[in-house]
């Protein structure tokens, strides 16, 4: 491994040296306004990115140096366009570069200037570029090329209020471009998993994790488009993204992309498309950490509900509690090997959501506790500390929300959950309950209600 790392440092150093040498000659050509030499040396400079010897981490270092040089080249192309050089001719000229990878980097660079010149509809140039990039099918090289395309085009997408919006160019074209680029990048990313010997699987997974944000960048840009309203998100964006997530059948990609969807799009959109989003969960690979995905979704929705009382009717309208409850039940039933900790974590998140959205519906709160009891009944007394801590958090939530033990006494499943705690943890819960009674100066009217907990 040490020898491999040393070799890689040498390869990186050689790549950087070659890149810098050609960049020097490219700058000299730019200073003398020699377009043909500038293209010649820039293509030779970009040929260093053809290497297959570097890990993604080291390749990124090489790519960033090339990226900085390409920004200078882009500025030169802009100046050429201002001086009257035909950007259409330039766009055709760079397509004569000998090797396909340098050719496509140059094409994306000129394409960015081409869109800015408005000599052609933005959608036509974007479509041409995203399709031409299919010429690179090597996963790492293809991912970085498409990442570059995404970077140079993101401020030139036809969006509402954008200077690139017009009769021929609309936000629909921007969405189509981003979805197509995302789809191709995800395919390349997933393909990395199947390259190389089985013994290096762990190493490949680590490398793939390092590259995930390149893929997710497309979704981040989609989430920032002004023109992507709820209808477009519901009818086009979410179905297309989920189709790719489900069909790729890759654990790493599915977990990361579900998290991306939850984080980058607005809470209101999640609420209004809850059924579609939750419907994808049982279709994910069994090894995907679905409890974390659902917990993050419920946390976002809980915070959304807490942000303003005005949004609460939306939750009732879409029957969010019912949909989340059913989704959790389906996931737990489908994943028969899910640890108790995972199931309790899901119910704890659902309880937090319920207390935020439906604090007055004690029947909902008790229903969540009852579902938890059903799952716990197959486990007996809990032994592992993670599950025990999660149960304590679950039981503490109603106390913290209502600040009234008398209200908690109305939850018939509350003491049934406590039955699954060991003696030591039961004492901890007893202290929590007593502290709540003392803090709120609660008066318990009858001995029968006191016995409720024993």
UniProtKB/TrEMBL annotation:
Gene Ontology cellular component list: cytosol; late endosome; retromer, cargo-selective complex
Gene Ontology terms describing biological process: intracellular protein transport; retrograde transport, endosome to Golgi
Domain of life: Eukaryota
PANTHER family on file: VACUOLAR PROTEIN SORTING-ASSOCIATED PROTEIN 35, VACUOLAR SORTING PROTEIN 35
Protein name (record): Vacuolar protein sorting-associated protein 35
């Amino acid at each position: 491994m040490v020898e491999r790392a040393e070799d890689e440092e040498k390869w990186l150093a050689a790549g950087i040296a070659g890149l810098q040498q050609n960049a020097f000659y490219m700058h000299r050509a730019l200073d003398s306004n020699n377009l043909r030499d500038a293209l010649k040396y820039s293509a030779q400079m970009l040929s260093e990115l053809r290497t297959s010897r570097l890990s993604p981490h080291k390749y990124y270092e090489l790519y960033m140096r090339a990226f900085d040089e390409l920004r200078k080249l882009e500025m030169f192309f802009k100046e050429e366009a201002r001086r009257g050089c035909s950007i259409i001719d330039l766009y055709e000229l760079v397509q004569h570069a000998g090797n396909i990878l340098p050719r496509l980097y140059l094409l994306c660079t000129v394409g960015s200037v081409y869109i800015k010149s408005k000599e052609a509809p933005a959608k036509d140039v974007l479509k041409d570029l995203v399709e031409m990039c299919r010429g690179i099918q090597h996963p790492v090289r293809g991912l970085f090329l498409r990442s570059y395309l995404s970077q140079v085009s993101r401020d030139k997408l036809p969006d509402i209020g954008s200077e690139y919006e017009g009769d021929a160019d609309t936000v629909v074209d921007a969405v189509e471009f981003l979805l197509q680029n995302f789809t191709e990048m995800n395919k390349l990313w997933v393909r990395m998993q199947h390259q190389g010997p089985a013994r290096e699987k762990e190493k490949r997974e680590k490398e793939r994790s390092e590259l995930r944000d390149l893929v997710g960048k497309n979704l981040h840009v989609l989430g920032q488009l002004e023109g992507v309203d709820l209808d477009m998100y519901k009818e086009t964006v979410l179905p297309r993204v989920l189709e790719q997530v489900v069909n790729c059948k890759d654990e790493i990609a599915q977990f990361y992309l579900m998290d991306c969807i939850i984080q980058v799009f607005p809470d209101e959109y999640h609420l209004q498309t809850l059924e579609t989003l939750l419907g994808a969960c049982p279709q994910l690979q069994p090894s995907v950490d679905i409890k974390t995905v659902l917990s993050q979704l419920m946390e976002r929705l809980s915070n959304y509900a807490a942000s303003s009382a005005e949004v609460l009717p939306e939750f009732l309208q879409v029957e969010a509690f019912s949909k989340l409850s059913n989704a959790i039940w389906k996931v737990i039933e489908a994943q028969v090997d899910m640890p108790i900790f995972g199931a309790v974590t899901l119910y704890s998140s659902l309880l937090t959501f319920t207390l935020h959205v439906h604090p007055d519906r004690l029947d909902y709160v008790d229903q969540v506790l009852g579902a938890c009891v059903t799952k716990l009944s197959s486990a007996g007394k809990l032994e592992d500390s993670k599950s025990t801590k999660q149960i304590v958090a679950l039981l503490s939530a109603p106390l913290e929300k209502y600040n009234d033990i008398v209200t908690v006494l109305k939850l018939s499943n509350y003491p049934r959950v406590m039955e699954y705690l060991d003696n030591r943890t039961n004492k901890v819960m007893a202290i929590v309950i007593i502290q709540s009674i003392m803090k709120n100066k609660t008066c318990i009217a009858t001995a029968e209600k006191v016995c409720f907990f024993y």
